[in-house]
Amino acid sequence: MKTLTLSVALGFVASFGYCADLNLRDLVAQSISNYDKDWNAALDFTYTEHEVTKDAAGRPKTTEISQVSVLNGTPYSRVIGKNGHPLTGEEARKENEKYQKTLSLRENETPEQRARRIRKYEEERRFLHEIPNAFDMKLLGHETLAGRSNYVIALTPKPGYVPQSKNARMFSDINGKLWMDEHDLRWTQAEANVINTISIGWVLARIGPGAHITMKQVKVDGEHWMPKEIDVNGSARIMLLKSRTLDQTISFADYKRVRAPSPTAAAKNR
Fold first, then answer.
1. 148-157 and 198-200 strand pairing
2. Beta-strand runs (E) in the chain
3. How far is Cα 199 from Cα 176, in angstroms, rounded to an integer?
4. Span 4-54, pLDDT tens digits
5. How far apart are CA 37 and CA 41, in angstroms?
6. 240 vs 105, which has greater pLDDT?
7. What does DSSP assign to residue 167?
8. First-to-last C-alpha distance (Å) of the chain
9. What SS3 state is found at 142?
10. Cα 258 to chain centroid, rounded
């Protein structure tokens, strides 16, 4: 469900007078370009993911902690704890086997296979570039979050829009809302409300109307913005057979830079 959550989740100047004259479509397009820079910069960091799945009463049912680091060009997530405890000896052995298997596969890739894997990672968020064309936008005003001023922008599906990519098909079935940092033009927070059933994959899942997705980001090193929390709640039919309630939160923390940006990357991120 982590990939599903993230995929769906992903499926979502200083004054009011100036912004009123500014093209919101261009403003959002610039924020997505900035998101690209941060997505690429994430390869210079290691961090932890805390995934909490809740029961029908909203109580934590399972908790999983993973360490994310870059392994031969793309991120690798390794479970390091469950339900508030370190892994048992058997669990640690299995995680190590998974890691060694992945490491071996990536070390023995052909140049073409490695390029394909990295390209797939880079293209995971490309559908976001369709947002400026897929939605009608309205400036709702300004709001201060964590001491920083944000534009608040409502997104509603644009009638007749034809998606250019598979993942962008969901845009016609959600209403969105963005909180965009006015200085950095990054998304401080994004919300999506499902208004029509969303299909994920061929038979993987259908997420029903009323599902709510929230993503929050935080500035981690004085320059880049990284995910802080993704929260999903609603209902889904998994494999089109089993109905289940979605109530899951993934939080991200402990960002640490493990390598300096390359001169090329640094130039692109300016």
1. unpaired
2. 45-54, 60-71, 74-82, 85-86, 135-145, 148-157, 174-181, 187-194, 198-200, 205-207, 212-219, 225-238, 242-257
3. 18
4. 454 445 554 222 333 444 689 999 999 999 999 999 999 999 999 999 988
5. 6
6. 105
7. G
8. 35
9. strand
10. 21
Neighbours of 151 (CB within 10 A): 24
Q: How far apart are the C-alpha atoms of 185 and 93, rounded to whole Å?
A: 44
> Can you say whether the dihedral through the CA atoms of 253, 259, 265, 266 is positive or negative?
positive
- Tally of CB atoms within 10 A around 212: 13
For the stretch 76-86, pLDDT in tens is 999 999 999 99
Instruction: Kindly tell me the burial class for residue 149, based on how many C-beta atoms sit within 10 Å of its own C-beta (0-12, 13-18, 19 or more).
Output: middle
Residue with tokens 């998606």: 163
Whose tokens are 């959600």? That residue is 174
Beta carbons within 10 angstroms of residue 141's beta carbon? 10
**pLDDT tens digits, 158-171:** 999 999 988 898 89
**Contact criterion met (CB below 8 Å) for 257 and 64:** no
In the numeric block, the tokens 């098909």 are attached to 169
What is the distance between the alpha carbons of residues 167 and 165, in angstroms, rounded to a whole number?
6
The model's pTM? 0.82
Contacts of 34 (CB under 8 A, 6+ apart): 184, 185, 186, 225
Task: State mean pLDDT over 127-142.
Answer: 95
Residue 249 to residues 2, 45, 54, 135, 254: CA-CA distances in angstroms? 10, 21, 8, 26, 17
Q: Compute how many other C-beta atoms are within 10 angstroms of the C-beta atom of residue 159.
A: 7
Under the banding of pLDDT at 50, 70 and 90, the label for residue 58 is confident
